[in-house]
């Protein structure tokens, strides 16, 4: 699934990755990432590069279903690294 700009922003925040670092990992300019996070248009290739970088960092994007909206999930080991409490 292609993640919305809102989900891309939420994933970066959930992983606690600075914008400059994510832009570098994705191979896009920091300005392009700022545009995504401001919900301004960028090329499909740019948004897919950012999504791929986030997925490689441990995010799984979840598609919308009949009863639930789209979302994201962080791998358990990555959640521990950034300080989430997991029972």
Please give a structural write-up.
The mean pLDDT is 89. A hairpin with an 8-residue loop joins strand 1 (59-62) and strand 2 (71-74). The protein contains five helices and two strands; from the N terminus they run ααααββα. Helix content is 53%, strand content 9%. It is globular, with a radius of gyration of 13 Å. The chain has a single domain, classed as Orthogonal Bundle (434 Repressor (Amino-terminal Domain)), CATH 1.10.260. The chain has a two-stranded antiparallel sheet with strand order 1-2. It is mostly helical and 87 residues long. The chain has helices at residues 5-15, 19-26, 30-37, 44-56, 76-81; strands spanning 59-62, 71-74. Helix 1 packs parallel to helix 4. The relative contact order is 0.21.
Strand and helix layout:
Elements: H1 5-15, H2 19-26, H3 30-37, H4 44-56, E1 59-62, E2 71-74, H5 76-81
Antiparallel strand pairs: 1-2
Task: Explain briefly what this protein structure is.
The chain starts with a helix and ends in a 6-residue tail after the last helix. The protein has five helices and two strands, in the order H-H-H-H-E-E-H. It has 87 residues and is mostly helical.
The CATH homology group name? lambda repressor-like DNA-binding domains
- List the total number of helices: 5
How many β strands by DSSP?
2
Share in helix: 40-55%
CATH level-1 class: Mainly Alpha
Report the order of strands and helices.
HHHHEEH
Unreliable runs: none
Q: State mean pLDDT (0 to 100 scale).
A: 89
